[in-house]
Structure formats: C-alpha cells, structure tokens
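Q: Can someone sanity-check these two? First one:
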Amino acid sequence: MTSATELPGRPRAGALGGPATARATCVLAPNPSPMTLDGTNTWIVAEPDSDLAVVIDPGPLDETHLQTVVSTAEAAGKRIALTLLTHGHPDHSGGAARFAELTGTHVRALDPALRLGGEGLGVGDVVTTGGLELHVLSTPGHTADSLCFHLPADGAVFTGDTVLGRGTTVVAHPEGRLGDYLDSLRRLRALTVDEGVRTVLPGHGPVLDDARGAVDFYLVHRAKRLAQVETAVESGYRSASEVVAHVYADVDQSLWPAAELSVRAQLEYLGEHGLIQ
C-alpha cells in the first residue's frame, strides 16, 4: 500500500525502465495501479563482463512484458540463467512459470510452492550465477516469505515490497506480521550501516539513493501509525474498519482495504505486547 509521501533520496529513472546501477537494469511491467504504483519493477542483474544474467521478479503473467525482459537482456548480450522471487504475490511471481519456459531457467524462492527446479532460497545463501554475488536476506513482514537481495558490488539492495520507492507498504495480515516487519526494517538499516548499502532497488516505484534515510522513514512512519492505532482504540474505535476510517483518513479510500490489513497486523501486535486489551 502506498501514500503520496516521497521518501528520502533522489528518485532515479532506472526504476521506470533502464539501467539503475552498473549491474541492475529495470524493465517496468505494464500493471500500474494504486497498489503497484507505476507497475512492478522486474530486475535484470549481471556482472558487466558476463554473458549470464539473473532476473528478480519476472512480474505478472503478461506475455509482452516477459518477452520484453528476455529481449532487453539479449540486447545487452546477456542470457538469462536464473530467476529469483522476492515473494509470492502475483504482481511479482505470476509470470514466473511462463518466464521459466521462455528462458529455460529454474525459479528459486523461499516458498517451496513457487520453486521450479527444486532448489530454493534460504537465509545466508549467496547467488553467484555468472560471477554475480547476491546475498539472500530474510525480511518477513509484508508477507511471511519476503526476501531481499543484497548486491554488494553496487552498494545496493533489492527490497521487493519491503521498502518501496514511493510511499509505504502494507503488512498483509494474517500472513504479514508487524513484529517481523519491524525486525526486517532494522535488519535493512544495519545493512546500510555495516555494509555500506546506499541504494534501494524496490519492487515498485523509483530507485532511492538514500537507503538509510528511506529505512529510517519507514521505521518512524510505522511507530507513528502504531501510536495512532493505539490512541484510536483507547478512544473507543474497536473494529479494524473503524480504526482505518479514523487513522487513515488522509489515505485514498480505494486503499482502505489494504490499510485494514495493516491495521489488523497493528492490533495483533499491540495485543501481543499487552498495550491494548
């Protein structure tokens, strides 16, 4: 879920299609909506001197888009050798099976139901296809199976829906859990401090050049929303829908169903920590 809020860092055109870093190129899927912003960012990632590429999130089942991803890689002299998924939502993974047919690649994901080829992804795994080095990070919260991929050579991290290029994301209760999500944001912040990550390559929206600022924004935003939800409950708003109408009054009502998922996650979190009865 998004709002109109701009995140810290200079947005760059790479997330609207084209090169974003020395190793990452974006192909924008034609599925814009209030939930997907400009559309899903499909990422082609490769070492500059390698003829092999990895694709992160082939996107929805849209034949033209999938063919465009293949042709974009081929135009750069790359053969797609592996497909990775940040999580299982259809706007990221819906085209994965067809994309595997087009490219002859395996699909690696945390969720076994999404894998094609047997090999999955686990915390601490390092993908080294074509000399590339992508470190797998467990970042549940948006969904239980959410992953991020750290690209050390470019000081970048592919965040899927954990951090977007614009606005904020939904904690998709009941699968998504706020406690997990906050832990994941802290994990990403540590990456900006300890590993020098500067750039966010998101699943939707523009590239961000201030990764630490973006994660800090998310942490502050979540703390404010949680406090607002707690206050709303103390003021007598009990149901999730009542809390949404009160707390998310500044958000387009078309996004309220998604907001309700986040509110349910917030109410669960507050209850687990004894902050509400």
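And here is the second, same format, sequence then tokens:
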Amino acid sequence: MLNALNMEYIVFDVETTGLSVAEGDRIIELAALRLRKGVLAERIVSLVNPGRPLSAGAQEVNGITEEMVQSAPMACEVLPRMIEFSANACLVAHNASFDIKFLAYELALHGRKLYDATPVIDTMKMARAFLPYLSSYRLGSLANSLGVKMGLAHRAEADAEITAAVFQRLLSMAEDHNIHDLKTLALKFGVEKPVFKLNNASQDSFF
C-alpha cells in the first residue's frame, strides 16, 4: 500500500533569474527538504550567485536582490550537493519540469547529473488528476484549496514547505485512484530529467 509516512522524498524548489536556460537564466536560490516518514529530517537552503545581473522582473517576483546574491556561493558549490542528497529518494516539485530543467542544466555546466534512478514527481500533475474541478493549479491556489497554510510566496524554502504539505495531502488521495506504490505514482505523475550535452561538460561514468 502507498503510505506517505513510509516514503522518503526530497521536496525542492528553485528561484531563477528568468524562465529560460536557453536565454542564459540561472538559479539564484535552492531549497530541498528531506522528508522521512512524513517528518522533516534534513534540508538544504541557499542563495546562489548566478554570475550574471538579476533582471528587474525577477527581483520583483521573488524579492531577491543583487546585494543578497553577491556574497552567496556559486552554483558549483551548492547544486552538486543535490546528487547525493537525493540518492535513494524521490524528488518532488510543483510544476517539476521547470525546476528539474534548471537543476539539470546547472549540474551539466559542471559535468554532473542526478542519478538516473532518481524519480521526479510533479504535484501539479497529481492535482490535475485528483482534483479536476479546480480552476487553478498554481501552487498558492492549490494550497488554499487543500487548506495548506501559505508562507512567503516565491522564495524557495517557503515554496518547498508548501509543496511538501500539498504533496502529502495528494498522497492521501492516491489509493482512491488505484495508485498503491511509488512505481505507479512515478509512472503516472513523473517527469523526465532533461539531458544537456554541453561543450564544457565532461562525461563522468560514475553518473
């Protein structure tokens, strides 16, 4: 049987300079929460120096300023920690294709990638299947519909905490939809981890 209390998963969120890695946008904040048996066991939370100016639009959305990221560690110091942090666990994010694309791209810049066996679950896909009557599946709207208390929107740690609470509520509905194990959950609501082949990214057989 599928039981959220017996699962170990990493709920994560990133804030970025924009919406497109193809246009040079980068991660400026990462939060990853390890939940074990439904309890927060560990977390990674860090601002990230993107090595490029922040747009006014990005600063307006997430409130992260140039001054805040100037003294933050670079991506190569922060993001590779996600490889081991997520090993033997399941990654979870809301609108996961966005977050995993940026994470995979940043890792590829340094010749790294997540383990192939690490699944990625999208809570937006789950919500669309389990709650088809909702008018909006944005994280804030979904959280409100499920009675999840909102934190500071558009900051990585707060959004990851909200996503974790949303995910556990959605998991409680899974068996009513004939989903009884993680394999089926990942098959129905998983997203692919993109593969970036970059000129400066070495191929390491360990991954």
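A (reply): Looked at the second one. The chain has a mean pLDDT of 91. DSSP finds nine helices and five strands in the chain.
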